[in-house]
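Reopening this ticket.

The earlier resolution said the output was attached, but the attachment link was broken on my side. Pasting everything inline this time so it's all in one place.
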Amino acid sequence: MRLRWVYEPGMRAFALARRQLGRERRRLAVAVAGVAFAVVLILMQLGFRKALFASAVRFHSHLRGEVFLVSPRSMFLASMQSFSGRRLYQALGVSGVREIVPVYTNVALWKNPTDGTTHRLFIAASDPRLDALDLEAVWAQAESLRAPDVVLFDASSRPEFGPVVQLLGKNGKVDTEVEGRAISVIGLFRLGTSFGIDGSLITSDTNFLRIFPQRSPGLVQFGLVRLEAGETPEVVRDRIAAKLPSDVEVLTKDDLMEREVNYWATAQPIGFVFTFGAIMGFVVGLVIVYQILFSDVADHLAEYATLQAIGYLDSYLYRVVLYEALLLAVAGYVPGLLVSAQLYRLTHHATQLPMQLSPALIAGTLAVTMLMCTASGAIALRKIRSADPAEIF
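Inline output:
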């Protein structure tokens, strides 16, 4: 009998689901490929979204301060608006404030030292003696930055800025132009790119004003406020905000980073696009698995009716379909995860974006995949309800 090796009396629902899936190898392969495709789509979209937010606050996370002053007109890091440096000195008079550090930022036109092409990059500057950034490479070269017309170059910048790392290793420095002014790259640091910044420079406040002679030294983009020992950033933030006028925004580091993330999540469509892409991956997987399970149930409707006729409850048949869905989820998730890991590695190498498969992302995507397949199975259960032995036989 055809059913003799499939439907044994007392067979567990899981064993039946496993055998039924394995019987149609081609259908199983299509289903696994569909789930894997959905997993890759979800993981890539969520990975890009996570990289978007993580890269957006790289610079902010390295700023050495507990409270920060910025202009409320500022949008995001590459378009920071200036405010009067006098606000920093006013903040210095607030109880709990130990030190202030003005930081200048701008977007500058960089000349590729080998082919002469120009590209926009991000430049940040401060007094080298005040250690505005907690980057060890910058600390080690702080004294060198006090020389005129010198900068440090981000070794993680995109390749269109030229082979700066190689030239620096060969010659000890790299001569080029920034905003039409001759400068020398004397060292490297590593920060990384983002969706708004492809490369970065760090220099002293004096050199920054040489590169941008039209900029006033009294106007800054960030104000770093360092606190006395034992002071709470939220408390000092509120004290400073109460004293200063509304032409500055006073933030803790968490506030500052959240402000940047919110810009990319809400003010720019790219954050929504990645979220929508992950949702579409879920929908694609849902449809594929539903079609496979529905076809499987339809093809074996007579067998399901036979099981009902010999005394199996509907709940048993439901478990069979749901176990099939969960088996498809696991079988498709594994190759999808492996493919995604390779794509993450290639994307990181090509863009220097922080594409990382974190344990939380891996576990979360597995849960979403199982939910997707379970939902498909639940929809396909409607077909089993039509398996009436009296009608079929």
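Reporter confirms the inline version is readable. Residues 1-10 have pLDDT under 50 and may be disordered. Residues 314-351 form the longest helix (38 residues).
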